[in-house]
Amino acid sequence: MTDTATAAGLDPATLSDLLKVAGDPGFDRLQEQIRRTGGCAAPIRLSGGTKLLHPATHTVIHAYTTDTEPGGVLRVACGNRRASRCPACAWTYAGDTYHLIRAGLTGDPAKGTPETIRDHPRVFATLTAPSFGPVHNRPGNRPCRCGTRHPEGAEELGTPLDPTTYDYAGAVLWNNHASELWRYFTIYLRREIAARAGLTQKAAREQSRVSFGKVAEYQKRGAVHFHAVIRFDGPDGPDSPPPPWATLDLLTDAIRAASPRARVVVPAAPDHGVPDDRVLLWGDQLDVQPIGAFGNGEDLTEQAVASYVAKYATKAAETTGTVDHPVGNKEALLLLGVPDHPRRLMEACMDLDRAYPDRRLRAWAHMLGFRGHFSTKSRRYSTTLGALRQVRADYRAAQQRASLGLPDPDDHPEATLLVIAHWSYAGHGSTPGESWLAANVRRDLQHNREHAHEMRAELEGETAWLP
Question: NCBIfam families, from UniProt (predicted)?
Answer without folding.
Answer: rep_init_RepSA (NF041486)
